[in-house]
Design a protein that fits this description.
Strand order of the largest sheet: 1-2-3
Largest sheet: 3 strands, antiparallel
Number of strands: 3
Distance between the termini: 65 Å
Number of domains: 1
Structural class: mainly alpha
Strand content: under 5%
Number of helices: 16
Amino acid sequence: MVKTKVHNLSKGVKGWVSKPSQPVLYDRQIVWLAFGLMLTGLVMVTSASFPISTRLTGAPFHFMVRHAIFLCLSLIAAFVVIQIPLARWMRHSVHLLLIAMFLLLIVLVAGHSVNGASRWIPLGLFNLQPAEVAKLSLFIFMSGYLVRKNDEVRDSFFGGFIKPLIVFVCLAFLLLLQPDLGTVVVMLVTLFAMLFIAGAKLTQFLSLLVAGIIAVAGLIISEPYRMRRMTSFWHPFADPFGNGYQLTQSLMAFGRGDWFGQGLGNSIQKLEYLPEAHTDFVFAVIGEELGFIGVVCVLLMIFALVYKALNIGRKALESGEIFGGFLAVSISIWFAFQTLVNVGAAAGIVPTKGLTLPLISYGGSSLIIMSVAVALLLRIDYECRVAALQRGDKPAKKMPSSKNNQQESDNHEEE
């Protein structure tokens, strides 16, 4: 009997290894990339937050436990979001945008202030950052707008191009009152990229791009603390114990990392030399502990996720899933640009902006919203695959819910 069980077990393992997996209606590579980034984030947040957690709470794993809770909430949120058809997101895109604006107003009235910035709404378990909600809400709204007004975007300057910019200006005004210039820049770059992909005229695009650059430059010049960030970014070692302190400590972390790093947990800069080591500058700790090889591996995972999102967007646009295509493209640009800004700030390439590293940095709002964005990518890919199967005359009885979702989307587009 024991021999029979061993034989059956070995046969099952052999079959699992040798036989190809069954076809599925979602991109498993995105799932594994997201899980890999989340696990990397949990390990690095644990390592980077150990000293400050001990000093602030007396419990060395305080931030690790909180980050693990955020991960669980993120997975629950992603599981719920992936069940919702894209047609419903498109139908309620305006409502989501209004909710985001309402949250931005609340944070100005009753927000929690940290380091002079009022960006969080206390919710007990964690502090909600409405700016993260505003990003995703704007991209969902813009995806729906580009579906409804695609011809106007191509032909009309005011009707198709200026109207979405008015919506952006309203959000930007509320964000700048916090203040949060970094989020405004991410939203502006992603919005311009979406309009360009939608077919806006090149002259209009370039003129507004120049206007946007001038506006951002004006916002930097108008605030002394932003100018100090710019000057410290240009010459951080000119004032290594003042305005350039954070950047010099971050560069020292990268310098100590060398090729293979000092080893996990052996960072010196995280011993409260480097401020925000577990949030905005967790990438510097990765560079110090895991070295150049670890940095490259993390960046490859993030940009593999970005590439997959772009590929999903391209396939969706080609198959006629216009809303899903624009949304997938916006998510890919959002993740890519925010990664470039975070990594660039840690490496001294761009000024510090206070943006998190996607799916890695400590922060409940950022982790949950970006997990929701990944779930939306999976939903877009799922609906594209279902539509492809239906076009191939596959039996509809195997996918009744997906067929209803597709009919609901078609009815909405006809409206």
